Amino acid sequence: MKALISWFGSWSMLAKHFLFLSVGTLVLLGGLGWINLREAEGLFRRQVVSDAQIIIDRTNLYMNAYLDNVQNILMLISTREDLLNEEKEKEAAEVLRSYANMNRTLYKSLYLVGEDGHVISNSQTTFDIIGNPQIPVLLTKARETYGMFITEPYQSPMSGKTVAFVLPIQSSSTKSFKGIAVVEIDLVQLTNLIAQFMNTKNQTFAIITNKKNVVHSFDAGLPLNSYRLLPYNTSVFPPELDAGFVDKVSELPLGAAEITGPQGDLVAVKSGMNKLGWYFIAFYENSFFYQNIRSLYRNFSTAGAFWIFLVLVSTYMISRYITLPVRTLVAKMDRVRDVEILHTIHATGNDEIGRLARSYNAMMERIHHLLQETKEAERRKKHFELKMLQSQIAPHFLYNTLACISSLAKQHKINEVRETIKTLVGLLSFSFDKSTEFVTLADELEGLRMYAYIQKVRYGDKFTMEIDASHATLSKTILKLTLQPLVENAIFHGIVPLKHTGMIRIRTKCVKDKLIIIIRDNGLGMNSEVLNSLFEERHKAPSKHRFTGIGIMNVHERIGLHFGTGYGLSIFSLPERGTLIRIELPAVEHEQVEKTK
């Protein structure tokens, strides 16, 4: 063993790597193949079960609609209590016959039963010959029931295997029990409707009541192999579902579960109980989930064998021919010290080493370019800061504000003059404070309120501004004069040209680690051409009517310079509808920024 370890230790690094990569590839590819195939099987199983659940839910909706339809017929019949009178017997039979003819796919037999047990049927002649021993039982149970009830499945001479819906009829005058209306449904038709999309080679279904009785009927028109998935007793006619199997199915939880059938394991998808008190269960052969991925097994095995062969060959070639070129490349890269000077490697070959050398040269050029961009960004950052501090207050803004104050003074509105001057002083103090360019959102909103107040003095009720700021956002950091240029743009270009009062709404919230500010107005809005021109406004001279020299895209670039290109403005606008500006900033507490500084 020591000799083997020593011999292995004498191998070169790439030879060891070759062995490790070969063995690792075999293990990884084999494990990955097994996991992927298992996941493919599980995914297909979940998809089939999900589809089955959808079909079951829709079937339950159909069942509920079925119940509603039967209830409606029973209610219509119950309103004709006069049909129970002896002189109305022919008319009653005709009414029942008309209802049965209109709903042949739903109802098999309809009955009106008087308190004395006299029965009127839609097929009176047939009933008089063969009768129906279940009718007295239903009449007795109806005397003890105040509303409609549904029986368990039973065998009827008139309707075959059926379920009866029974509604007691009361006298409208005395409120006493007068008789019952009975509908026996056609379970064969009901089963056929569902079997059209549930009975296939690999799937079938069953309908069971909450008392563990089988509802669905045997259809003699279907071949016997349609019933091979479930344990039917075919020695009797019609074949019956094994009672023990019914008990097991009744105890299954809702959703998907596994159960053993006569042909092997089955996946049962059980629905919740519908209004009829029935459970609908879909059954799938367990092998059904595997047969569709057998070709995937074969394809994956073939691809895996071919892939392993390629990996082994390519790993051997790399381990043999890469050592010397890599050492040469490392030796040249070690000579790089100063990134200010562009160092390049002479690349001659077109193989991996040649491409690596060219990639290294491209990387060095990119680094050099990024350094230049960083320097340019710092220069532009200082330029924007200087521009902001040098052009914070436009003369025309002061002129218009002082003119408004003068007008208020001439009107002897002393309180308005005092408040306007106080607001102007506060706004100027906020703008001239050069100690920091970062403020809390609360301070920024306060400065915005002062600016909006002065503009309302100038324009009157031309616009209103609402601020909905989450309390958690008020202590977050924001660049000073971020919101004011955006609101100013909304006032002058969106709302002032309107013939009615405009609205500006500002909402702030924190989403994960981001501070989101949304400014919305209902002004003129912009078309795509005007919206695109906003991205060029930084190349134009600022309007002399602005409060500051900061435009919309200046705000966007300032945010990008201070917080990174992942933050900034998103602008959406529709003509005659208004504009929405979404601002994304990092959600940083102002105290942390002050401590950092």
Automatic annotation (TrEMBL):
Q: Where is the HAMP domain?
A: 320-372
Q: Would you tell me the protein name for this molecule?
A: histidine kinase
Where does the UniProt annotation locate this protein?
A: Cell membrane
By its UniProt entry, which Pfam families does this protein fall under? HAMP, HATPase_c, His_kinase
InterPro entries the record matches: Bact_2-comp_sensor_kinase (IPR050640), HAMP_dom (IPR003660), HATPase_C_sf (IPR036890), HATPase_dom (IPR003594), His_kinase_dom (IPR005467), Sig_transdc_His_kin_internal (IPR010559)
- Which top-level enzyme class is recorded in the Swiss-Prot or TrEMBL entry? transferase
Extract the GO molecular function terms from the UniProt entry: kinase activity
Q: Which reaction does it catalyse?
A: ATP + protein L-histidine = ADP + protein N-phospho-L-histidine
Q: Which PROSITE patterns match?
A: HAMP, HIS_KIN
The signal peptide here is none
Q: What is its EC number?
A: 2.7.13.3
What stretches pass through the bilayer?
A: 304-323
Q: Which UniProt keywords apply?
A: ATP-binding, Cell membrane, Coiled coil, Kinase, Membrane, Nucleotide-binding, Phosphoprotein, Transferase, Transmembrane, Transmembrane helix, Two-component regulatory system
Give residue ranges for domain Histidine kinase: 479-589
Coiled-coil features, chain-numbered ranges: 360-387
Q: Could you tell me the membrane topology recorded for this protein?
A: Multi-pass membrane protein
